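Table 4 source record.
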Amino acid sequence: MRFETISNKLRHEYIIKKSRFICDLMYCSSLENVKIALNNIKNEFPDATHHCYAYIGLPGSNEFEFKDDGEPSGTAGMPILNALKINGLEGVLAVITRYFGGIKLGATGLSAAYAKATQEAISKAKKVEAIYSLFLTFSLDYSTFEMLKANKNLTYDIVEIDYGQEVNITVAVPKENFEDFKNLVYGLTSSQFEVSIIKEDYHYY
């Protein structure tokens, strides 16, 4: 399984007719974390007029949520959600904090403003592919480790290295590529290779 998400939390501000739309865009893995992030933003901007948001969960979770937070129905949460969908993002939360500037935008103007603030934030985000992966730990001698690093035929990522008498390595490997990776290292070590799977999770490549 794989999906596109963002790796960096960012904040973008859009101003129209003196109203401020502050978009916080971030990776988020569950509705529980949505509540935590939303509460943190509300505490940071307690005097804001609205805190509208949309969330699309991880693949297979069927989680999504959006709120207008007092704006006219359909003018805030849905435009934010649609911007996330149009960009093919999952596991992402967008919260827009609005400070009303005294000039009414109307329903159409509000929807456009929330969509534009979200889209501009997304355009600044670092998009990454998250792939469901196995996290493996094993040890290699130094020369074999250099041969492994030189091999560019398979997707994997070294996430931790401990240099001792041997090189103790933790790597993330897409689950679909596990057997190929294992065979690669077996070939480099003449089958003198022991590996432990420490966890399964999504990883950015």
